[in-house]
Amino acid sequence: MKHRLRVLLCLLLPLVFVLAACGDDDGDALSGGGDTPETTDPEVVESEFPAGSTMARLQEAGAIKVGTKFDQPGLGSVGLESGDPEGFDIEIAKIIAANLGIEPDGIEFVETVSANRETFIENGTVDIVIATYTVNDERKQVVDFAGPYYEAGQDLLVAADDDSINGPDDLAGKRVCAASGSTPIERIREDYPDAEPVEFDTYTECVDQLQSGQIDAVSTDDIILAGYASDPKFEGEFRVVGETFSEEPYGIGLMKGDDEFRTFLNDTLEQSYEDGTWKEAFDATLGASGVEAPDPPEVDRY
Amino acid sequence: MDTVWESRDLILDGFGTTVFLFVVSALLSMTFGTLLAVMRVGPIPPLRAAGTLYVTLVRNTPLTLLFVFSTFGLPRMDVRLSFTAFAIVALTIYTTAFVCEAVRSGISSVARGEIEAARALGLPFRKVLRLVVLPQAFRAVLPPLTSVLNALLKNTSVAVAFNVAEATQVFRRLQNADASATFPLLMITALGYVFLAAILLGGSRVLERRVAVTR
């Protein structure tokens, strides 16, 4: 039996390689000959960290686990061809990793959805969360935040031919979708009680429902919606209303009480504002759809 | 613990929705399931084949996929219902296959001789079924049917990911609002399901005793 298994493996292994090679060829053919999406490659820095600190631990391991969203075009999404996460949040993760002396290969991206980010940090499933994670007081009771590294605002995405919704005050009786456990869904519930809240785990599901006409609007941060509106898959189908009704500072979530690590993250962000890597990261991702890079927000060392 | 007490209305609403999903889907799938079982044991070959195909197909499809089909597929075919209705569609499609098999097993438990005797008396298929087979089958069906319904009760929680504010979704929402209350919330929600299942099992036992025949 053992012998037969070994023979089978010997027969199968080359096949796997052949198939893998075929896969590569197909990939190239699809993307039109090595036309890879532009990403930044921050320089890996070797520095000394105090013994016993989170930074020293991560540097020692040469690896970091980053929780991010996989369904936010421009911020954090998985490319269908490459299979790798890409976007502004991913670039920020690379900047942080580089300053910890970790190569991009050493970053393990773990998919988080809005509802499990706190749990993942508390359980140590991830080291940090960079996932369009709005800093607010309620969350600060469970986790700590570095940053913010970006300021967004809640907005609405509607069908391009729907002129009945021009702001949050037009939502009465409308079905409005946002991710379960996210700030936008709670705001819709509390501030716009006449709207019918619809929640799914991912924004992809919300956009799917909007596309099939089952709901009237998708609501989340303007920059995320802009990503969907400009996505070639949905060309001309949606429009962003353009009336923001909140301020959403995106922060980096980390284990509560790890002040040393938080200071390091804040320092790293400030440094990236100064040396231009932050702007590079923005231009390579969110800026690709023609959005001008804004001034980075001020880091809040609370 | 405060979170649990403060949110008692929400939690109760959640279980209300769970019960609603359960009752409607249970009634629908018991109706369709019995019809399907009759199709499968009946004398008409195309109906038998159709029944077998349905059971094979649906019983081997994960419930989540049926939910995706109803909640995301039906709107694409311009079927516009409430999200709760989509959930009921998915749960009914799924549970019907299991009810069918439970009922069919009950029907096979009826002694062949009785059916042959009924036929020999000249009763048509419908009367054989209504007067001889189903009353006896019902007795045999109760225990497996109870397990099917018990599974349905817990299966309603799949709706958590499809925008139905049933008990599990309420749990997740409250947990997200206050992660420190995860454990008490989990306990309360689990107890809620256990309580509902106990009612179901108790009811089934009473019914079982009432239809029992001393042999």
Category by helix and strand content of chain B: mainly alpha
Residues in helices of chain B, as a percent range: over 70%
Question: Averaging pLDDT over every residue of chain B, what do you get?
Answer: 91
Instruction: Work out the oligomeric state of the chains in this entry.
Output: heterodimer
What integer is the average pLDDT of chain A? 84
Radius of gyration of chain B: 20 Å
Q: Beta-strand level of the residues of chain A, as a percent range?
A: 15-25%
Please count the beta strands of chain A (DSSP E, at least 2 residues each): 13
Return residue spans of chain B where pLDDT drops below 50 for at least 5 consecutive residues: none
Numbering strands along the chain, what is their spatial order in the largest sheet of chain A? 5-1-6-13-7
Q: Biggest interface and which pair forms it?
A: A-B, 21 and 17 residues
What does this structure look like?
- The complex is a heterodimer of chains A (about 300) and B (about 220).
- With about 300 residues, chain A is of the alpha/beta class.
- Chain A has ten helices and 13 strands.
- Chain A has helices spanning about 1-30, 55-60, 90-100, 115-125, 135-140, 185-190, 205-210, 220-230, 260-275, 275-285, and strands at about 65-70, 70, 75-80, 85, 105-110, 130, 145-150, 155-160, 175-180, 195-200, 215-220, 240, 250-255.
- A five-stranded mixed β-sheet of chain A has the order 5-1-6-13-7. In chain A, strands 10-9-11-8-12 form a five-stranded mixed β-sheet, sandwiched between helices. Chain A has a three-stranded antiparallel β-sheet with strand order 2-3-4.
- Chain A is globular and about 60 Å long.
- With about 220 residues, chain B is an all-alpha fold.
- In chain B, about 80% of the residues lie in helices and about 0% in strands.
- Chain B has helices spanning about 1-5, 10-40, 45-60, 65-75, 85-110, 110-120, 125-155, 165-175, 180-210.
- Chain B is flat, with a radius of gyration of 20 Å.
- The model of chain B has no long low-confidence stretch (mean pLDDT about 90).
- The interface of A and B includes residues 119, 198 and 201 of A.
